[in-house]
Amino acid sequence: MKAAVFDRYGPPERLSVTRVPIPEPKPGELRVRVRATTVTRTDTATLRAHPFFARAMTGWVRPRMHILGMDFAGEVDALGAGVTGYAVGDRVFGLLPDHFGGHAEFVCVGAQAAVAPIPDKIAFHEAVVGEGAWYASSTTDGLRSGQSCLIYGASGAIGTAAVQLAKAQGAEVTAVVGTRHLDLAARLGADRVVNYEAEDFTALGPTFDLVMDAVGHTSWFACRRLLKPGGVFSATDLGPFWSNILLGAVSRRVGTPYPNDAPGFVWRLAGMLGAGTFAGVFDRSYALEDIVEAFRYVETGQKTGIVTIRM
């Protein structure tokens, strides 16, 4: 099979599309023929081993994993022993948070892991929405109906998902985006859209129960005046001088939450996709052979929503 492989940390040029053996499903696993996957901030950071301490999980000197890609959508190709509930040919999507592997023509995933059937009328390239939504859910799931939240950077994969998930929780959502994304944020359901290029969003006042930095470009110090008493600042990045991590260690009002229960979330997301209450926002699509260019584009920080790889 073809796969985008790397064996050293570094820039996108470390990746090469080459042929590797097709994996065999172990007992309890599905083998999926991948039809679509994504390139995300997580992929680019893992390739560069950023931040450095992430090497404790991925390999100190050289990477232990050699194929990136957390999202996948495709067809069940083979079943390991003991698998029930799935059949060859079933359309499925999901996440690979532990070992990645989506940047390949085939991948094996546990039948009880983060995988679920793709709802009818959802195409493969429309189903690779899991990673950004999963990260967003770690923050938005804490919202209650009637609460207010501000989402800074509501145009990326995490931010566009956060707007929709926060609305599903019954929250009032203020989305902060640049000029070219004002209409997008409104279409996603934001109650208020603020253009950070024309207005200082940090001067809105102590209005919010939650402020979420979905792109890692602001900090608690800049946003603290936005919070109601007891309000929480949540970030998807370490912050300046790792301030979000350090402050989070001493205050419940600052956090960089990591999501859990990927299997449960994927099934919940499948239900939302089928009901039409959640939809991915997609930017560019690349062939697997052009994955280096996809990584370069994601690293610009200018993508809108999700960048997909088609197989």
Automatic annotation (TrEMBL):
What superkingdom heads the lineage?
A: Bacteria
The record places domain Enoyl reductase (ER) at 10-309
Q: Which Pfam families match?
A: ADH_N, ADH_zinc_N_2
Single annotated GO MF: oxidoreductase activity
CDD domains reported for this sequence: MDR1 (cd08267)
Record-linked InterPro entries? ADH-like_N, ER, GroES-like_sf, NAD(P)-bd_dom_sf, YIM1/Zinc_Alcohol_DH_Fams
PANTHER family from the UniProt entry = ALCOHOL DEHYDROGENASE RELATED, ZINC-BINDING OXIDOREDUCTASE
Q: Indicate what this protein is called per its UniProt record.
A: NADPH:quinone reductase
State the organism of origin.
Answer: Marivita hallyeonensis
